[in-house]
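Q: How would the structure tokens look for this protein?
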Amino acid sequence: MKTFEKWIYLILLSFIYGSAFILIKKGLLGLTPIQLASLRVIFSATFLSIFGFKTLKLIPNNKWKWIVLTGFIGNFFPVYLFSFSQTIINSSVAAVLSTMTPLFTILFGYFIFAKKVNKNKIIGVFIGFIATMFLVSNEISINSDYGGKYSFLIILATICYAINANLIKYKLKGVSVFAIALGNFISVLPFGILIFCFSDFPLYDFYESPLILESIGYILLLALIGSALANVMFNKLISISSPVFSVSVTYLLPIVGIGWGVLDGELFSKFQWIFCFIILYGIYLVTKKKQMIFL
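A: Here is the predicted structure in token form.
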């Protein structure tokens, strides 16, 4: 039953996270990256507080340092990094680049948390990683305005996600998944509000701009589904599986992200679709139960 449950979470999260990139793209039409990211933090904290503020008392006092740390590493920094990166990078490319998360998750799990890694996971991760590199190289040739420095922002965000997944699994084990998500956003909320106050947002007349209102609508949806709900689901997935399996969602979400990008007029070749299926094979190896050779 648990195996079936974790696959359901994985598929749902793939769709949610994969859709986040197109929502960010649409949100940036009327908002600056700083405004978008700050509103995402504010809205997410608000939604989670409405539905479960009392769960904060379920967090043991000695766990709050990890709650704050994962709040910044797993939510605050990535939100701003992705917002800035997508001012240049297409939503489909951003989705593809995020597939580097499992590689970093294994590396941090092995070197920092002394987590044993089997041969299947290593092979699967590197197959997915190599396929991702081919996808990116093809995308660079298609989109000449691709910025290398902006791709680094996404890579940095994937490193944050990898560290976050390991911290939640090994430092917050047994803590309510909802409490973790709420604690994360409550921890970073003051900083999100402070940054937003200095973002030059037209607070008194924003309602006169249909474009800004539309962008805020996209960010409301992104915050509710892509941040608040998705964080609770992701924490649950980590609790019933492993950090590597959990972040394997980043190998499925590019298919969703690319699909939305194509529907929005972004170019994506048949060649790139082939490597999407190779990525799926990489997931199969990562999640294969048979243990072979340990490092």
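The chain has a mean pLDDT of 85.

The radius of gyration is 19 Å.

Upvote if useful.
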